[in-house]
Amino acid sequence: MASKGTEEKIKALAYKYYLERGKKDGFDQVDWSRATKAVQHEECFHLASLLLLLVAAFCLYLERG
What we know:
The protein is mainly α. Helix content is 82%, strand content 0%. The chain has one domain.
């Protein structure tokens, strides 16, 4: 289950994509799917960045030790 912040990001992106399509079609699963994938990729990138930072800090710790 997604956190409240994540759900809000998905809703905002889905609505943005809906508006970008010029409201031609209904607000459908295409918008939700696209928004969900975008937010998941963004969160995955943040986690990968944090992991890389942790590895770099550990390497510095080992170098000094």
